[in-house]
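Section 5: illustrative case.
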């Protein structure tokens, strides 16, 4: 994992120093932030391969910050939550809020490094660009184009399109779609989801792929 960059976000300076030393020894480039404000500033100027994020930070909740990331140009960066919150409900909340992995303190560094390596391997398997008929998606830029024209997708429309592409020709329930795109349970009102899908359908019309729906099964992204 040489030349891979890790952003460590933790206000515990002792833990931070230990992780920096060990990650550096393993060949990683490390960056540190002891506040969410520092992490936010760093990500606005630099690229990283993985973020290790504490939930309880002095200037806010790491979960809220993670949701910011998931709605930004850095949405695809893998995030491992490293925290002292060990209750099952905390773990579920962290993963459902957009975390790719969750590790509780105290922890074994060999386990931490193995999980970070796995996250990086998985993230590099996803291509930087995807072509579906006349539709092209630039993952790095967070844009989708039809015949070279930017579709100007809203954040949720773009998130839904990526989910559909990652699960093409497979039915996805409305609840699952909403959970993935909004990072929250859908509840009893599917209006926001249906509206976003309606707009997305109109924007990708004629691209060679379409969004279908079947009662009891959900939505499906398939060739027209």
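Designed sequence:
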């Amino acid at each position: 994992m040489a030349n891979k960059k890790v952003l460590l976000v933790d206000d515990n300076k002792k833990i931070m120093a230990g992780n920096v030393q060990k990650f550096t020894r393993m060949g990683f480039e490390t960056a540190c932030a002891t506040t969410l404000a520092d992490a936010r500033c760093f990500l606005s100027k630099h690229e990283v391969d993985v973020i290790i994020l504490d939930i309880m930070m002095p200037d806010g909740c790491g979960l809220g910050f993670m949701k910011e990331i998931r709605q930004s140009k850095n949405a695809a960066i893998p995030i491992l939550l490293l925290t002292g919150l060990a209750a099952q409900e905390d773990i579920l909340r962290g993963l459902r809020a957009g975390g790719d992995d969750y590790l509780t303190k105290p922890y074994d560094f060999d386990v931490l490094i193995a999980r970070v390596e796995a996250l990086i391997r998985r993230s590099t398997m996803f291509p930087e660009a995807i072509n579906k008929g006349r539709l092209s998606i630039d993952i790095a830029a967070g844009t989708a184009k039809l015949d070279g024209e930017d579709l100007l997708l809203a954040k949720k429309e773009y998130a839904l399109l990526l989910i559909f592409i990652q699960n093409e020709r497979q039915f996805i329930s409305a609840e699952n779609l909403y959970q993935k795109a909004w990072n929250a349970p859908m509840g009893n009102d599917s209006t926001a989801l249906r509206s976003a899908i309606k707009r997305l359908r109109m924007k990708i019309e004629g691209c060679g792929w379409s969004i279908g729906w079947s009662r009891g099964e959900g939505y499906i992204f398939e060739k027209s």
